[in-house]
Design a protein that fits this description.
single chain; alpha+beta; two-stranded antiparallel sheet; 3 helices; 4 strands; elongated
Length: 144
């Protein structure tokens, strides 16, 4: 694995985790949105990651066992199919004839935990990137 591959892998992880944080923040921002363009309440979104490049398992099968590319990428953003949360509020403009408003299926605690996990993974990858940078600088000092 080359020096640039290490930076590309870490960079892809930083990009993916940043996107995951953006989606969690979007979910938190829309936790009270009772009507979207489709006419229903906002649905919680989740990010799906996939390995980029050759898989580790495939690299073990090859004779060279060289991992090229690598990293992670976002393959899709899926909407949660959990039920909406009925809240009794007969004065709300979106209330049904029984006085219930269907609220988004966003759980604040779940979003905060997801945000913390993405933030921790982002910081870990940033630390790895700094380590690769430090190793490169040490390698350059060898020639002095």
């Amino acid at each position: 694995m080359s020096f640039l591959d290490s930076m590309n892998i870490t960079g892809s992880a930083l990009t993916a985790e940043r996107f995951r944080m953006d989606i969690a923040l979007q979910n938190l921002a829309n936790q009270n949105t009772t009507r979207t363009a489709s006419g229903e309440p906002y649905r919680r979104k989740q990010v799906v990651f996939r390995e980029r490049g050759i898989s580790f398992q495939d690299s073990l099968r090859t004779a060279a066992a060289k991992v090229e590319g690598g990293g992670v990428r976002v393959t899709q953003v899926v909407e949660s199919q959990r039920d909406f949360i009925p809240v009794y509020d007969p004065n709300h403009p979106d209330a049904n004839e029984e006085g219930y408003v269907m609220m988004p299926n966003v759980n604040t605690t779940e979003e905060r935990i997801d945000l913390m996990g993405a933030s921790n993974a982002y910081e870990a990858n940033l630390t790895a990137l700094k380590l690769v940078q430090s190793l490169a600088l040490k390698a350059l000092e060898i020639g002095k």
